[in-house]
Amino acid sequence: MGDTIRLPGPTANEEPVVDNLRDINVHSNKTNAPLLLLVEDNLDMRAFLRMQLSEIYRVETAADGLEGLEMVKLLMPDIVLSDVMMPKMDGIELIDKLKNDVNVSHIPVVLMSARSAVEHQIIGLNYGADYYLSKPFKNELLLAAINNILDQRKKIFQKLSADKKIVNLAPGDIIVTSKDEIFLKKVLQIISENMADSDFDIEKVSHMVNMGRANFYKKFKSLTQIAPVEFVRDMRLQRAKQYFDAGGGNVAEIAYTVGFSSPKYFSTCFKTKYNISPSDYLKSSKPAINEKTYH
């Protein structure tokens, strides 16, 4: 894929009406590959890019920004690749709407445009684009940009769990909008303050951040690469280890303190994460343990 992608000339044929939503995933057998939404009004360019990108990603397409906006909300793709100049809604308006909607603001967007002037690139980046490509561009540059952005998103949970005492988010280390950073910090604060409640669940978290359960689940998992319920359990186990290290009580007491309703289940989860039972950990001199991490 070393060719330069050039904007095809105008075509005399109108694009047939296609229900994209009935064609999900049929263009790639990579069922676990990231889902990319391509928003491009030029039929030839859209077909060419889809063919190229489908070798690596699951790809869905939209013919303009308005259709793209609807499909983003329905499909919740891992990344959006959008042209700038389009009918009905251009790429700048599309990214503006995406970045100001808390349900989808976490989804990274790469803009493509024949407008190569620096001022146009600045406008796109100021509206929240994660990358700006000027047409024509090398295939390798497009793929490298997409891959780099997706790799950065995968690192967020490693950053979240890096500090075992205080789960922390450092601005600039990951590619997220400021609203997403606020969202994550709020979720972490809610979980931290309520983890002792064994009845505390994701339904309550989503309600406290004013989001529907389904949208909250998709957004949180997209940002952290882990399901919310697993994350809550992981935080409870990290807190339990802190209590053990501080001499905070026996296994049953700590299990209840961090929100587990069953000491037996707590012990099973603790051993799965740290490869040592909590009772053995208490008897030990608190050695460095082989912690299970999520990727």
| Largest sheet, spatial ordering of strands | 3-2-4-5-6
Give the CA-CA distance, first to last residue.
29 Å
Give the topology string: H per helix, E per strand: EEHEHEHEHEEHHHHHHHHH
Q: Approximately how much helix is present in the residues?
A: 40-55%
The radius of gyration is 23 Å
- Unreliable stretches (pLDDT < 50, length at least 5) are 1-29, 163-176
β content, as a range? 5-15%
Helix/strand-derived category reads alpha/beta
- How many β-strand runs? 7
Gross morphology is: elongated
Look at the structure and give the mean pLDDT.
76
> Count of DSSP helices?
13
**Major sheet details:** 5 strands, parallel
Describe this structure in words.
The structure is a single chain. The protein has 295 residues and is an alpha/beta fold. Helix content is 47%, strand content 9%. Helix 3 (91-99) links the parallel strand 4 (79-83) and strand 5 (109-113). Helix 2 (65-75) runs parallel beside helix 3. 31% of the residues are buried.
Which descriptors apply to this entry?
295 residues, alpha/beta, 5-stranded parallel sheet, two-stranded antiparallel ribbon, disordered N terminus
Outline the fold blueprint.
Blueprint: E1 4-5, E2 35-39, H1 43-53, E3 58-62, H2 65-75, E4 79-83, H3 91-99, E5 109-113, H4 118-126, E6 131-134, E7 137-138, H5 139-154, H6 156-160, H7 178-194, H8 202-208, H9 213-224, H10 228-245, H11 251-257, H12 263-274, H13 278-283
Helix pairs in contact: 2-3, 11-12
